[in-house]
Design a protein that fits this description.
mainly alpha, about 90 residues
Length: about 90
């Protein structure tokens, strides 16, 4: 039909070749409605590992306040503290 725009959809594939072909032919503005913010890391360096720790709620709140006060992310502050302790050990 004349006057109708075709809606571009993000491909549902893990194929690098297909994704490369898609991005060669399209612009991110064509799929803005499908994009979502990702807050967790997508890629992780090979020399890093992830752990999960449980903290009492009040400790986590205090940790976040301290991190905010010095202007860094609370997870970065934890990493720095652990590194300092390990260097001192």
């Amino acid at each position: 039909m004349a006057g109708q725009m075709k809606t571009t959809r993000l491909p549902k594939t893990d194929s690098i070749e297909e994704l490369a072909r898609f991005w060669d032919e399209h612009d991110v503005t064509e799929v803005e409605d499908e994009l979502e913010e990702v807050t967790e890391p997508i890629f992780q360096r090979a020399d890093e590992a992830t752990i999960q720790i449980n903290l009492p709620k009040q400790d986590l709140e205090q940790l976040r306040r301290v991190a905010d006060k010095i202007g860094i992310d609370h997870t970065k502050l934890i990493q720095e503290w652990i590194h300092e302790k390990l260097q001192a050990a």
